[in-house]
Amino acid sequence: QVQLVESGGGLVQAGGSLRLSCVPSGRTFTDYVTAWFRQAPGREREFVGVINWSGRNTYYTESVKGRFTISRDNAKNTVWLQMNSLKPEDTAIYYCAAKYYPGSFLGTLSGATYDYWGQGTQVTVSS
Asked: Which of 2, 63, 64, 11 is nearest to 29 (CA)?
């Protein structure tokens, strides 16, 4: 069973950047999609974006388009979330999650369908 570990969170001023990483803690397999979710205290978990196994296709929620970029390097077994132009409303715990590609990105938006999760990393953006 694959489990994930996130790192790279921290405190940054509005307008700054952070780069999060997500790596498996065990043996990896092909044909997974990897998604990023975030959750602020007292709020629902929110889909951020997703990347397919090849890294050629990504999809993002509207609020982060143009600011966040997901990439992967399978040789390093790593997925990154590059976050630029950060805003205070981006403050949350960020999680990565993975599952087998369901056939469409439309089937990747719900966290309830993911099999493997990381422990989360805190991102705090100050005004």
From this structure: 2
